[in-house]
Amino acid sequence: MDVLEKLTILTDAAKYDAACTSSGGNRTAKAGYIGNTSSSVAGCCHSFSADGRCVTLLKVLLTNRCVYDCKYCVNRRSNETRRAAFTPEELADLTINFYRRNYIEGLFLSSGVFRSPDYTTELMIQSLRLLRENYRFNGYIHAKTIPGTSPELVEQLGLLADRLSVNIELPSEAGLKALAPEKTKAAILAPMGQIQKRNRESKEELVKYRHAPKFAPAGQSTQLIVGATADSDLHILRLTQGLYDRYRLKRVFYSAYVPVVEHTLLPSRDVKPPLLREHRLYQADWLLRFYGFRAEELLDDKTPDFDPRVDPKCSWALSHLEYFPVEVNTADYETLLRVPGVGVTSARRILSARRVGRLCVDDLRRLGVVMKRAQYFLTASGKIPDGLRFTPDSLLRGLIAAERPLLPQQEAVQLSLFDAVGVG
Amino acid sequence: MTEMVYVYDGSFEGFLSCIFESYANKEVLTAICRDEDFAPQLFACRFIETNVEYANRVIRKVVKCSPYAAELLRKGFLSCLSDREILLYHLVVKLLRQGPHFLANFSDETLNPVVRAVRHLEGEAHLLKGFVRFSELGGVLGSEIEPKNQVLPILRSHFCARYRNERFFIYDRTHRQALFYAAGKAVIRPLEAFQMAPPDETEANYRILWKRFYDTVAIKERFNPRCQQTHMPKRYWKTMTEFQDDAYFTAQSSPASAAIPGAPSETPAPARLSESGTSAPASAP
User: Fold this and answer.
1) Residue A304 lies inside a defined structural domain of this protein
2) What residues in B contact A46, CB-CB < 8 Å?
3) Global pTM?
4) The complex's ipTM?
5) Of A100, A349, A362, the CB nearest to B141
6) A199 closest CA partner among A211, A184, A183, A213
7) At A252, which CATH number?
8) Residue in B136, B206, B217 nearest the CB of A55
9) Residues A116, A117, A123, A126: what is their CA dihedral angle, to the nearest 10 degrees?
10) If exposure means fewest CB atoms within 10 Å of the residue's CB, which of A217, A270, A343, B71 is most exposed?
11) Could you say which DSSP state residue A131 is in?
């Protein structure tokens, strides 16, 4: 089997992993080594595939042979698919040559469980060591940790990679039991705890000794599959929040379940992936990380799922109208961030600009505030935009109308004019 | 105070000299034109000779008032804003009259167009950090881009750090200039015409591998071209490997043409370019 064929099989098997970021690294260029990771704080996207997802790393499996039989996965052992494995040299050669041509920011290495988690991880370590030491690769490496790997091997992996991730995949223990019987919650959380602890220790050591080895300097992330099990948005968001609080994760990725297999426990094959739901979860995820929201504020047991028609921040604002309107000339940063249509950038600009003079409505537009959403929720020098009149009912309609062009095409068709009029 | 139109040679120093002269002559500028764009008009015109000493005095004064304003001046001049000279001139005038306080207000009507243009420049440069595609030809990495703004000065530090052990060049088709790097030295030089040499066997092979990877990694159930184009506008596709037609992936086994990319046989290797003084090498068609 030639490299082109292997690349095809092993990319096809890896593509359902959502994580594709190159942020958080700070390897500077070194003499005699190839590359660095300090392109910018936010990472660097090298292309966007036809599904609109960013391509930043060479995302492949080391092998798609797997002893596990997770029902949702294309690589499970009972699935009849072609199997392949890279040799460490092939993988290193691809990475180096793609990197030199600026196709990629680095390598994302995952793998099916070949023989056992420990054996697979040893193979991954061997490949990454070859790449780092013999091929002198100094770019970004994201490595998957397989649940059940022994701590000594996780340690070695962390010293080679910039970011580690352990995929939770199914957001509940019940889901794991039904669909991924070989995995347990404990086996997933154990390496996560270890990575967090070692990452913290490594940072403390770096303060004392300049050349202390760096353990996963870009932190860790995880992925949750949305729509394969019956878990609610509230459950997923609470889990996310717990992961950020307890394990200091850099990112939680959501992957809308793409039906790849017919199984009684899974959605049928003609179900479309719940892309809008995934989108709303990402929006909420941002609210948790950058806007100071808590999961309990966004959802509760009475409304355990997000409204598909408006974004989570608008939903929150609509059910907390007593907070509004916010006066932009006096409100503090945290309050400004809670206004729909105001983001981190525009809130900072407001703080800076109002020290120079009082702001009026026209200034806000220039500051980057999205007025089609924000206009209902703020005042500038006591005034709302000219000619704006609304009631709580028309407010929802206005926000839905503002949101519609942003939705994926098929969703926009589902929301007909009559739905919108019928609301409230 | 009289109203005037100034004409300059198109260089940054020339532009700064215009600002200097406008104060020296007590003239208010209504337009600042590059000599190549200049068409005779009703307003009184003056051609300003570039004077490096005057330029330095202007930039020193601006840095003293606000280092941020100096950065806006440098980057704003690289942006594709059509009347960037006069907008930057207004910015300097306001800075000298009022002090740097207004620079904190993003919505300020003098500042806003300049900052937006600079953000556009930086945004394009950031995208290109990812979208530049190199081809290896005779041990040199070469690429072409077609940006709206003059991004090469912004891209320079990024690519020089990343490929510090390589020899590479990036050709900017829009502004007809190229960034050359070799052995720790980088220069940006005008380059009138440039034609990328066809790939050899190895290069074609990696192009095929990349194209296959790119096509395979998309999930067809999630097909979303609108989202793709939002993040990666089509104007960048022209110079990206994954969107080229079949001929781009076929090796041309003529090692002579692959030796040095850039067609003209007298094109020196970038290693020598960086040391070859101020004359523009390889600019002969």
Assistant:
1) no
2) 130-131
3) 0.89
4) 0.91
5) A100
6) A213
7) 3.20.20.70
8) B217
9) -140
10) A270
11) I
